[in-house]
Amino acid sequence: MSLKSINNKERVEGQEGNQKDIIIEQRMHYACPLGMIEASIGLESHKVKALVDNGEELSIIPEVEYIKAGIPMRALNMRLKGIGGHSTAIVGLSENTLLILPSGDERKSISL
Fold this sequence. Notes:
The protein is mostly beta strands. It is 6% helix and 54% strand. The chain is built from one helix and eight strands. It has one helix at 63-69; strands at 2-6, 9-13, 19-23, 33-41, 46-53, 74-81, 87-100, 106-111. The strands form two sheets. Strands 4, 5, 6, 7 and 8 form a five-stranded antiparallel sheet that branches. A three-stranded antiparallel sheet has the order 1-2-3, with no helix packed on it. Strand 4 (33-41) and strand 5 form a beta hairpin. The longest helix has 7 residues, at 63-69. Residues 48-85 form the Peptidase A2 domain. This is Peptidase A2 domain-containing protein.
């Protein structure tokens, strides 16, 4: 058998030369931490150290930093599970919160 990648499908060639497409469910997500930076959050520009991750879907910060920055937060009750199986509580979500990166780029949503 030989496999050739076709988007989210794989083409499988059998011994008789007949081909068929099979759907391969993709469950993996790769991210690459790029290093630590100093950023500012909230209207008061509270300084925090942040790990830059090119595959992030959420910006996560400790609850104590939320409190120091005076950021309003909507309570959530959920857990986040990491690649090693460790899980941690997510206690709130802040939407449209200003996060200023050293390059001057802004992000609009932060969760902790």
